[in-house]
Write a structure and sequence with these properties.
By secondary structure, this protein is of the alpha+beta class. The chain contains 4 helices and 8 strands; from the N terminus they run ββααββββββαα.
Length: 165
């Protein structure tokens, strides 16, 4: 059996890189990112829910959302989309700030059609420094959270596939 997911913390000390193989066509995987109704079903680590307050899916558009932790804590987030190239790539910035979690990074998400109805999804989060990456891993469990989020996406896309057949 092939490796279905991978977390790379070694390649670049400023990056968290996650890769996951999905048994779903690229167009469907990309669609799971385009609507807050979809995102609410899979975004975040295990036990988290997500409430979207604003979602403008275009370059320069902003996604404002709250991740509700299983411990009752709310995590305010703001993402600005820099590039959207359907169905190949999404690049966004999590800019941090006074009204959101103090986390800054740029995320490049690529959707690679590898044939046979499968998609290789790669999340490449790049932080301003190795220290910032280390802080986000220590304080937020961002590395484990990415693996869990990718697994939740796999499950959600499978349910999208089965409901459309």
């Amino acid at each position: 059996m092939s490796v279905r997911s991978n977390l790379d913390l070694e390649q670049d000390p400023r990056s968290i890189i996650g890769t996951r193989l999905l048994d779903a066509p690229r167009k469907l995987v990309f669609a799971a990112w385009t609507d807050p109704k979809h995102l609410a079903q899979w975004w975040g680590p295990n036990g988290f829910t997500t409430t979207t307050h604003a979602f403008d899916f275009r370059p320069g558009g902003v996604w404002r959302f709250v991740m509700h932790g299983p411990d009752g804590r709310d995590y305010q987030n703001r993402i600005t989309f820099d590039e959207i190239a359907p169905p190949e790539r999404i690049i966004y910035r999590h800019s941090g700030g006074d009204d959101v979690e103090p986390v800054q990074f740029t995320q490049t998400v690529t959707f690679e059609d590898i044939g046979n109805g499968q998609t290789r999804l790669t999340w490449h989060g790049r932080f301003p420094s190795a220290e910032q990456r280390a802080r986000v891993i220590k304080e937020y469990g961002a590395d484990k959270g990415l693996v869990e989020t990718m697994a939740r996406l796999v499950d959600y896309v499978a349910s999208m596939s089965s409901s459309s057949t």
